[in-house]
Design goal:
The chain has about 130 residues and is an alpha+beta fold. Helices cover about 30% and strands about 25% of the residues. It is built from four helices and seven strands. The strands form three sheets. A three-stranded antiparallel β-sheet has the order 5-6-7, with no helix packed on it. A hairpin with a 5-residue loop joins β6 (about 70-80) and β7 (about 85-90). α3 packs antiparallel against α4.
């Protein structure tokens, strides 16, 4: 079934008019309406889970909270050297799920440097 893309003043208006449709179809309609930009994306990494909606070229997402500290992350849609839009991820986060465990390990006086190194490898490898 062929679906016509709705008209809208911006990506939010089109997204609202297309509630319930597949994300890929919504992103295509937004791209058709506004040209180059960056599709909505979700990022899951050591700093938490982040999501941005469609970003017009040279626009920045709203700041998003890092999961493990009070710092922020944001995302900017830029044109790469090959003329394709891509998202530049900016994480100003410092802490991760492992930060507390790493800090505790650093403060352990009962372990040698070699033992700390091995435990640090275990902490970072298993997460």
């Amino acid at each position: 079934e062929c679906i016509s893309c709705p008209k809208g003043a911006d990506s939010t208006e089109i997204r609202n008019k297309m509630k319930g449709e597949e994300d890929s179809l919504i992103e295509k309609c937004i791209s058709d309406a506004f040209g180059n930009g960056c599709a909505a994306e979700t990022y899951v990494n050591q700093y938490g889970t982040f999501r941005h909606a469609w970003l017009d070229l040279n626009t920045q997402s709203a700041p998003q909270d890092c999961q493990y500290d009070d710092r922020k992350a944001n995302f900017v849609c830029k044109m790469d050297n090959e003329g394709k839009p891509h998202v530049k991820e900016n994480y100003h986060c410092q802490k991760t799920a492992n930060t507390k465990e790493i800090e505790n390990l650093a403060n352990k006086t009962s372990l040698s440097s070699e033992e700390k190194t091995e435990k640090l490898k275990d902490i970072t490898r298993n997460r």
